[in-house]
Amino acid sequence: MSILVTGATGSLGPSTTARLLRRDSVVALVRHGEERAASRFEVFRGDVARADPEAPVDRLGFVAGDLAAPDAGLGGDDRDALAERVTRVLHLAAATRFSLSMEEARAGNLQTTLAALALAETLPRLEAMLVASTLYVAGTRTGTILEEDLVETTFVNTYERAKHEAEREVRARMRDLPLAVARVATILGSSRTGEVRVPTALHQAIRLAHRGLVPMIPGEPSQTIEVLDAEHAGEAMAALLVDAFEPGATYHVTAGPERCFTLAELFEVTLRLFAELDPAWGRRGIEPPALVPPETYALFERTVREAGDPAMTRILRGLSTFLPQLIHPKRFDRSRLVGALPSWDPPATEDYYPLVLASSIESDWGRARAEASP
Amino acid sequence: MTVGIRALAYRFGSRTVGLEDLAERGLLSSTPETLRGFGFDRVHLAEPGEDLGRLAASDLLREHDVDPLEVDALIVFGGLPPDPVTVPDGEEPTGLFRYPAGRLQHALGLARATAFGMGQQGCAAVLSALRVARSLLLAGDARNVLCVGIDVVPEGMRREVVYNVLSDGACAMLVSTPWERLRPVAFAQITKGYYWDTPARRDEIVAAYFPTARNAIREVVAAAGLTLDDVALVVPDNVSRRSWEILLGLLGIPEERAFLGGSAVRGHAITADLVVNLHDAIGARRLPSEAPIALFTFGFGANWGAAVLRA
Q1: Is residue A358 part of a domain?
Q2: Could you read off the pLDDT tens digit of each residue along chain A, which spans 374 residues?
Q3: In a domain, A203, yes or no
Q4: Which of A41, A141, A133, A47 is nearest to A96 (CA)?
Q5: 10 Å Cβ neighbour count for A293?
Q6: A316: closest chain B residue by CA
Q7: Among A192, B74, B124, B157, who pairs with B305 as Cys (CB 3.0-4.6 Å)?
Q8: CATH topology of domain B4-176
Q9: How many domains does chain A have?
Q10: Secondary structure of B130-196 as H, E, C letters
Q11: Residues in A lying within 8 Å of B, measured between beta carbons
């Protein structure tokens, strides 16, 4: 029997696949593209082996497909093979860039989820399907967010809205299919190597702070920045799909406020680490961004826009897809997650953040890695 | 020994030019509407040969009945570099040694005064001049120090710089002992040499401006043994009114406690701004006796300067 993974080459793919391989054989749905699916798969298999050197990668296979294509782009033989073998599906495929148009965000998140659900319906042996989502389907809500909540609200970016809409579709199918949802926190990086596989808007903000280009941040200093390391995110996903699957459940997969930095702590520690890790940076005397009330930030943003300052406009546009979330402080309840995975024990941000920053600075924020990759 | 600011005066260039005129002449990069939204209305340009520094200093001496021979030291400062001096090849370079401080000392008849210049701090030079004057007085080396700031933008140069529109202006400030009013009680200056190359670091300077400004003001207020709530009035420079609204938001100081009335309307006269606004705040009776007053200005280079005075 096998586990089918969509979006395996994305942020969570290698770490999660590695942990799934310890439990079962895995078939990755690898997109057709300019490169042949086979060569993309070889790169991915290497990524899995790097993510977990102990993972039995000989149990990893692939099918070429595309959730954006009719019938998931699968050939008849592949479709038959999946129907024969697959008992569990992990749907990771997503378009996570916050700056996408609504149409693009829906195509990459809602439509792909609908396609994955349609594919799942063709799998007669299906026992469990876990759909990856985001904590921020809660949009601009504030206060305590329960795992069962999926409340109509407004959103900070198109990604949040599209994921919210996708979750609605998943919930609507829960009567017919064995479905569960994992709302995953921002993946900060690997707690083992510090590598950031897919930089997020948070990484972008940190990179800009390193360049001394973030003047201010709107937000409540005590707001928790919910993040998770790739290894524990992968372990949680694998366990929720295989070991502790509960149809109809939704989980907040995050380390929780007691293990995460507050906004104020994040920037304080970040700048201290910049100075320690990068002596040239320390000599510049760059100040931490000011944490300001939303109206002050809005006035600054308006001023930059009116002045037509191209560089600062570009910087603020990038940040604006993410920073407004910080003025909507919330606490994510994780009772159901803790109940399902009582021994899951992710590290505190402070335990691996130095490694992540060191890796980011050393790789020039991923540029060196990107240039070195085939 | 008490040291205070005994007299203030200022002059703008005598030619008033509207934003539309500047735009037509290609001296702005933003539209007049945008700059009006930031609080600007017009700028003042010096006519050729108009000696704004001498005029401002003469006004001060005359209006406050100061005998030029009472002045022990003259500090001449500016945010802009002095006019470039060229000496033809092969000639003795004595032409390089023609200083505005000496010329002004002679023109004003300050025969007893030691004259010297200060600069390389952009607009923040005004607070450095005040600080040095105070130190001279406290050291017993002088009883009256005249500080004169002069900034004239070269003819034809663009008038807009990083969200601001520049006026030509000059200021004069007589710092004396014993003097009870407008006593400087604390200074803070944050110099960040990393930003010395203004064009190369422009975007980083824009990003650094607000958090560092906030730190400089917090620092000087703490050095004066006060809290931000104790500050009776913030006297701004005349960079855009909008930027002051943002900075006050960062500090949590309501706009009513800042002297924003004339801010930016007449353009940013570089080092003269603080003297202009301090002078006008006195005229507007916004400085109750002994009230703590916070002054702040930023100078490319890069320097964030702040002071607390006791009115």
Answers
A1: no
A2: 899 999 998 889 999 999 999 999 999 999 876 568 888 899 999 999 999 999 999 999 999 999 999 999 998 899 999 999 999 999 999 998 888 999 999 999 999 999 999 999 999 999 999 999 999 999 999 999 999 999 999 999 999 999 999 999 999 999 999 999 999 999 999 999 999 998 998 999 999 999 999 999 998 899 999 999 999 999 999 999 999 999 999 999 999 999 999 999 999 999 999 999 999 999 999 999 999 999 999 999 999 999 888 889 999 988 888 888 889 999 999 999 999 999 999 999 999 999 999 999 999 888 766 555 44
A3: no
A4: A133
A5: 16
A6: B207
A7: B124
A8: Peroxisomal Thiolase; Chain A, domain 1 (3.40.47)
A9: 1
A10: HHHHHHHHHCCCCCEEEEEEEECCCCCCCCEECCEEECCEEEEEEEECCCCCCEEEEEEEEECHHHC
A11: 211-216, 283-290, 292-293, 295-296, 299-300, 303, 306-309, 311-312, 315
- Listed by start position, the domains of chain B span 4-176, 183-310
CB contact under 8 A, B249 and A213: no
Residue of A nearest to B206 (CA): A215
Nearest CA in chain A to B160: A307
* Whether B211 and A290 lie within 8 Å, measured CB to CB: yes
Peptide bond into B178 cis (omega under 30): yes
- Contact criterion met (CB < 8 Å) for A287 and B38: no
Could you check whether the bond before residue A116 is cis, i.e. omega within 30 degrees of 0?
no
Closest-CA residue of A relative to B208 is A215
The reply to whether residue A290 touches residue B38, judged by beta carbons under 8 angstroms, is: no
- The predicted model scores a pTM of 0.90
Q: Residue A123 belongs to a domain with what CATH number?
A: 3.40.50.720
CATH 3.40.47.10 fits B183-310, yes or no: yes
Q: In this structure, what token pair is assigned to residue B99?
A: 């200083």
| Strand B114-118 to B164-165 pairing | unpaired
Domain of A55 in residue numbering reads as: 2-188+226-257+330-348
Do A293 and B38 lie within an 8 Å CB cutoff? Answer: no
Contact A1, A24 (CB under 8 A): yes
